[in-house]
Amino acid sequence: SSKTKQESTQPQQTTEANKNKNFKVGLVTDVGGINDRSFNQMAYEGLQRAAKELGVTVNVIQSKQMTDYVPNLTNFAQQGYDLVISVGFMMHDATEEVSQKFPNTKFLIIDSEITDRPNVASAMFKEQEVGYLAGALAGLVEKEKVGKVKGTNIIGAVGGMQIPPVDRFIAGYQQGAKAVNPDIKILINYTNNFNDPAAGKQMALTQISQGAEIIFQVAGGTGEGVIKAAQEKNLYAIGVDADQSYLAPDNVLTSAVKRVDVAVYDVIKDALNGNFKSGIMYFDLKNNGVGLGKINKDVPQSIIDQVNQLAKDIIDGKIQVSDKISK
Amino acid sequence: MKEILLNPQLWAATLAMATPLALPALGGTFSERSGVVNIAMEGIMLIAAFFAVMFAHMTGNAWIGLLGAIVVGLIVALIFAWAAVSLTANQIILGMAINIFASGVTAYLLNTIYGFTGTPVDTPMLPTVEIPIIKDIPFVGHVLSGHSVIVYLMIIILFISDYFLFHTNLGLRLRAVGENPEAAETAGIDVIKLRYLGVALSGLLSAMGGAYLSIGALNSFNPDMTSGRGYIALAAMIFGKWTPFGSFGASLLFGFATALSMQLQNTAFSKNLIMMLPYALTILALVGIGGKSVPPAADGVPYTPKK
Amino acid sequence: MKNLWKELYIPIVAVLVAIIIGSIIMLATGFNPVKAYVSLFIGAFGNLNNIANTLANAVPLILTGLGVAISFKTGLFNIGAEGQYWIGAIVAVWIGYSFSLPWYIHIPLALIAAMIAGGLWAGIVPGLAKAYTGANEVITTMMMSYIAIYFSHFLLEFGPMMEKGSTIPQSPLIKDSAVIPFLIKNTQLSYGIFIALAAAIFVYWFMFKTTWGFEMRAVGYNQRAARYAGMNVPLNMVFALGLSGAFAGLAGAVQMLGVQHRLYDSFTSGYGYTAIVVALLANNHPIGVIFAAILFAALGTGSQYMQLNAQVPGQMADVITGLIVFFVAAHRIAEVIKDLLARKQKKEVKA
Amino acid sequence: MSAILEVRNITKRFPKVVANDNVNLTVERGEIHAILGENGAGKSTLMNIIYGLYKPDSGQLIFDGEELNLSGPHEAIEKGIGMVHQHFMLIPVFTVAENIVLGAEPKGITYDRKKANELIREISEKYHLEIDPDAKVKDLSVGLQQRVEILKAFYRKAKLLILDEPTAMLTPQETQKLFEIMRELKQQGMSIIFISHKLEEVLEISDRVTVMRRGKTVGTLKTKETNEQELANLMVGREVVLRIEKSEYKPGDVVLSVKNLTVVDQQNVTRVKDVSFEIREGEIFGLAGIDGNGQLELVEAIMGLRPKKSGSVFFYGKDVTNFSTRQLYREGISYIPQDRQADGLVLDFTIAENLILREYKDPTYSRRGVIQYKKVYENAEKKVKEFDVRPPEYMLKARNLSGGNQQKVILAREVGYNPKLLIAVQPTRGMDVGAIEYIHRRILELRDKGAAIFLVSLELEEIMSLSDRIGVIYKGQLMDILDGKTATKEQIGLLMAGSRFDKTTLEAR
Ligand SMILES: Nc1ncnc2c1ncn2[C@@H]1O[C@H](COP(=O)(O)OP(=O)(O)OP(=O)(O)O)[C@@H](O)[C@H]1O
Ligand SMILES: Nc1ncnc2c1ncn2[C@@H]1O[C@H](COP(=O)(O)OP(=O)(O)OP(=O)(O)O)[C@@H](O)[C@H]1O
Ligand SMILES: [Mg+2]
Ligand SMILES: [Mg+2]
Questions:
Q1: Sign of CA dihedral C195, C198, C204, C209
Q2: Whose CA is nearest to atom 6 of ligand 1?
Q3: What phi and psi values does residue A193 have, to the nearest 5 degrees?
Q4: Mean pLDDT throughout C45-73?
Q5: Contact criterion met (CB below 8 Å) for D161 and D76
Q6: Is residue D289 within 8 Å of D496, Cβ to Cβ?
Q7: Which residues pair with A29 in a beta bridge?
Q8: Range of D373's domain?
Q9: Which protein residues have a CB closer than 5 Å to ligand 4 (ion)?
Q10: Which of B262, C302, D108, D504 sits at a 20 to 30 Å CA gap from D464?
């Protein structure tokens, strides 16, 4: 009897699977490539998850140079891909251009706002919100001299390049720390590079020599060096994009997680089910598009409670977080 | 300014940033002294950085990781030498080809072997060294002590390199081959063998430089994590007039300028203008000291033995 | 016919070897090499659009390649074409968005200004330093390259050239009057290709037909003989580096006006480095530069397409590109193989 | 006792020529065996085969009773073959000692500088070849460099010593010194192969002579039983005029006048001291002197290639002291520099391009900055024919010409434009008799047409046979100016060595 059951369900499953299999999703990375330890990588993970869980057909092109964006997007569109994903604000112009030429293809762009196209969805993240929480946590840890902190009341942030997503994180971080600890000093540096962890490490050590005890890395691969520096000096680092607590469980204070993977997965799922919506989608604390990762065991519950309250306030709109760094 | 110069971290960072330049620069000295321009050092560093992590993680021993990196670096260097020396191919094109290849192959292996989360967190690191007595001297201790063991190895290698090149018979022959291979050959020296040696040494030292980045300063591999250090090392070597101490000095200068630009970033200047510092200082220093540097006469010129 | 084969078999065998080794790697890692190479080729030359994109990618490589070739031909090692490209791009974009002019003034103005800027970037510091203090131009041009890139970061990241009201570090779009129009719709190919081709012909003419080119080549091959023949060696060196930089600068301008239409914040364009290989593969001959540039452009566009249609990851595309370049350079491997085969045959005959 | 070396039926082909065609040669123990032959006859090739640098295509070498099958020079050295190469095989930035011991350093890992210097002092004493082991080779005069090359061979304890044109760049005194050494070596039982283009040297020093022509040995003669003319004819395969007839000396106006010229080098060492002389139309003024006594600095200063400290230069009465090199050329001065490959030619240019290396801006060859290649090629075709450049293909790169033909290209360029003044430095260095004859004839032709010639040469023979007046330079000072007809070799030789036999002549000037 079990045999017949299988036989009866299979055709149905197959058509379902076929339908999904025929749904083709293409992803074009920016020149950072999949291994950027940042949004390209997260987007790719979301894509992989969609392939595995939804059975859609996926394909990736990693752009080598900026002039590849238009041809790569065009190639996907021309080959009848249903959804084409552009990763990164650098692909804004290219996505605008190609989406206009292929109105029947759906596009998703990460980290950039395209509003006037019926076939383009933009996934924007409120990095400043999670940055705010990370900053508040750091501010409180400094103020109360928790764990490894001696209370210099100085914290730092190491950015990759001075680009919008990076600055939104740092802007929030700044505001959050100041909000709970007005006297705190925040060092902000950039390495001008997303793939030089050795430089990131020295940059972090430099901040540490200037008194910083908690350093927020917003620098992709470069940031691994920041975490390493915190580990060596037995201080704290804050991870970014993914939950990076596993890199140094004792020394990662928390991570400012940005769920690009979730955004990608959700949009694929919506498009597959005919629910594709153009325009800007915001991923924020409220819809779990951003959020803090694992919090270090050194942090007492009281502080965690305060941070959670701040999160609630942001979600409720009681706190507005600006996306601009103040000098 | 005084405050910055008195910050020991400035000087510690100088040494740390100089090391991954000085090692390939020393390597380049050997290779170019034997007459081969090895631009592939960048790629060799990168490949070595990857395999250092891989072997270190596989065996749980960072030293084996270093050894493995060196072996792989040597293999790549020998392939380069085969094409550049035995087949007399254009050394620059070959070097660039290897660099493109290295960038691709390491990222590819990273993905296929380790997936997206990157190299394993439990990869062992090479030890850091606390120098007794010195480590307790206030300022000096911070600057000189507590670096990765490779930093100290580099210093030792620096002296050995100088000794080897300028005080041994083999060093004499190696330099002869880079100056005038024909003369060396008529003196009964095997030009080809020595050029292989020169390139091999550059591979070995570049590999150490790469391993420093991945398992010396950190314990992970990131794509393109060498960030052009192989090229800057080449410039340092030229600046250093193809001598070990000169190369080391130029690497230090570069490391210092980089460290200084890090310290200065939080001052009033635009950070991007400050980041130009290492490069501008290098030019100024070069012009200031009358940067005439004469390469080995047969540098970059392939040689075909007569018979 | 036989002669032609004799000329060609070495490079052909070299490419074959590269393809075979690439195949082995692909097979070992689970990809279909036939499919990969077919899509590499189709991606590069399969249809008009792909050809157009390949040519479009060749444009900046031709121009930077020419710049590098000029310097190599004159015995100087300008490896800073990357920086000169950026300077040219910066100036062209600035002129492109700052002024309103008729196109026939706007475009030439931007191009010429970019050439001058690129030329000064290479000629002033590296050129004068080389001519008068002997400072090695390998170092100075490389350092100036990094400086140029940081200069562009400075301009774009909340600097004077950043688009007003934007948070994105990019310049405003250039005015329409400064845009070099596209030649083929839906591709990246602009009329810039004609500028590149004209530049190659000009450089050929300049280097090989004019007295100035004659002087520069003489200085490049033998400084002493040039001095003994009454030529001004330092001046020629400065000028050679300047001219070299001018074409790299032109590359930046043509790319901005023809393709990108604005300046983005980026680490490198990569053109300046590829240009070195392009020039060397072309043996520094201006016309050869065109073909070498197209080869590289084809590998570039083809490898993008190879990811799409053969699912070969981008990194593998680099691996194969590296191999092809390696074996084209080491083309004498064909002789080695021939020798091996001959020896084997001899053995067999003996047996 | 058997011969030290037997060369049997050696053949060596290069892509375009058979350099050695079935060559046979026997060198007896303890003899000085000279080898003569035109440029490109295959002498150096044969020597390189004996030394293990080239592998012959066929044939045998028997050395010291055993057959040689050399895989490289290191084996030849081991067997006891030493060679001094035609083109120096030295490393300029190395010291003398390093150059000599290279490849056979005193045992050990470390380079034992003391030991090396000691060994070198020993042999240099033994053979009376003084040299400072710590001097850098690049700072040495050509003669001293030659000495280093010879010491290199001695150091390796050669049984057979090959000297490939060792005298090409030596002064007469140095040559004599070398000969003394060679004789002494012969006494000690060493065998020597000696290659030279100078017939009188061959006659003076050798026991037997083998003549080569176009890759073949055309005969071996006992030196005592032959003479210059026979050897020259055998070499070239035709009658050769050894003594050139000079027409009558009819000096005209003063062309070049150098007044109190002083030149210092970059280290501020005085190289030319207060030199004054005049050259007239229809006159060859020869400057004799041992290499390194300021000849080059003098010429380069006159040519605007080197700063002058004081003094002035006049050309047809016009002050040209501060003229640039190009301006001087425009005035009608031609210049054949000493080193044809380094200074005279762009080796990667074609012959045609090299022929206009100075004149490319001339309206004949270019219009508005564009070179008229048609004109350039017409000129090249004519010159190549006129000056007998072989092969007569002007599109060939200068690199692919033999040294003699390279020199002809320079000659064609400098003499071909009928200059008013020709400055020629070492115009026949390393050339065979046929070629020398030709060059000398062209120079004399130019003089007869009324040009002034400033001839600088290390070859006393050349100076004496061509010059109308002879100046002798020593340590940057012009010692005296002698009449070309009456001056004797001894006179000049003494002045070259720095002794003023007659102070009054100098003061009277
Ligand atoms: N490396 C080479 N490749 C090709 N051909 C060569 C090479 N060396 C020599 N030849 C050829 O061999 C011939 C003999 O040259 P070789 O150098 O032996 O002449 P030579 O007698 O020593 O002349 P010279 O008296 O000028 O030194 C040359 O004419 C040339 O054609
Ligand atoms: N490496 C080489 N490859 C090809 N041809 C060569 C090479 N070396 C020499 N030749 C050829 O050999 C010929 C003679 O060369 P070589 O240098 O022996 O001339 P030469 O007559 O001996 O000159 P010199 O007067 O300087 O002694 C030239 O025609 C040249 O084309
Ligand atoms: Mg010769
Ligand atoms: Mg010879």
A1: negative
A2: D14
A3: -170, 140
A4: 95
A5: no
A6: yes
A7: A62
A8: 339-415
A9: D 43-44, 86
A10: D504
Is C150 within the bounds of a domain? yes
Question: What domain count does chain D have?
Answer: 3
**Six token digits for residue B8:** 């020991």
Residue D242 inside a domain? The answer is: no
Banded model confidence at residue A205, pLDDT cuts 50, 70, 90 = very high
pLDDT-above-70 percentage for chain B: 98
Measured by CA distance, the residue closest to atom 28 of ligand 1 is D40
Sheet architecture: strand order including A252-258: A185-190, A154-159, A214-218, A236-241, A252-258, A290-292
The alpha carbon dihedral of A211, A215, A221, A225 has a sign of: positive
Model pTM score: 0.90
Contact C315 A93 (CB under 8 A): no
D121 and D260: one domain? Answer: no
- Touching B: which chains, 3+ CB pairs < 8 A? A, C, D
Q: Closest ligand 1 atom, CA of D46?
A: 18
Is C218 in Cβ contact with D357 (below 8 Å)?
A: yes
AA identity, residue A40: N
Q: Which pair of tokens denotes residue C207?
A: 């280097």
Considering every ligand atom, which ligand is closest to the CA of D402?
2
Size of interface A-C (CB pairs under 8 A): 89
* Interface contact flag, C186 A101, Cβ < 8 Å: yes
For ligand 2, atom 23, the nearest C-alpha belongs to: D403
D84: exposed, middle or buried (C-beta count within 10 Å: 0-12, 13-18, 19+)? buried
Supply the pLDDT for residue C3.
61
Q: Does B136 touch chain A (CB under 8 A)?
A: no
Tell me the pLDDT of chain A averaged across its residues.
Answer: 92
Together in a domain, D287 and D185: no
Tell me the ipTM for this assembly: 0.88
C-chain CB neighbours of A100 within 8 Å are none
The verdict on residue C9 lying in a domain is no
Domain ranges of chain B: 22-226
- Does any domain span residue D504? yes
Burial classification of residue D307, based on how many CB atoms lie within 10 Å of its CB (0-12 exposed, 13-18 middle, 19 or more buried): exposed
**Same domain, residue pair D224 and D261:** no
Tokens of A299: 């942090």
Tell which C residues from 121 to 160 touch B, by Cβ distance under 8 Å: 125, 129, 133-136, 138-140, 142-144, 146-147, 150-151, 153-154, 157, 159
> What pLDDT score was predicted for residue D158?
87
- Of D263, D232, D255, D251, which is closest to residue D320 (Cα–Cα)? D255
Whether D66 and D16 share a structural domain: yes
CATH of the domain at D78: 3.40.50.300
Could you give the number of structural domains in chain C? 1
Residue-level pLDDT at C7: 62
Residues of chain D with confidence (pLDDT) below 50: 503-509
- Are D443 and D408 contained in the same domain? no
- Domain containing C80 equals 47-313
Question: How many angstroms is it from D45 CA to the middle of ligand 1?
Answer: 6
Range in A177-191, B87-101, B264-278 with the lowest mean pLDDT: B264-278
Q: Quick one: tokens of A13?
A: 């499953």
If asked whether residues D168 and D307 sit together in one domain, one would say no
Q: How many interchain CB pairs under 8 A, B with D?
A: 80
Distance of CA A6 to the CA centre of its chain: 42
| D6 min Cα distance to partner chain C (Å) | 33
Answer whether D342 sits within 8 Å of C225, measured CB to CB: yes
Closest Cβ–Cβ partner in D93, D103, D109 for B168: D109
Closest alpha carbon within chain D to B188: D74
Query: Would you say residue D244 lies in a domain?
Result: no
pLDDT of residue C156: 93
Over the stretch B21-43, which tens digit does the pLDDT of each residue have? 999 999 999 999 999 999 999 99
Task: State the alpha helices, DSSP H only, in A162-259.
Answer: 164-180, 197-209, 222-232
Q: What phi and psi, each to the nearest 5 degrees, are found at residue A107? A: -125, 145
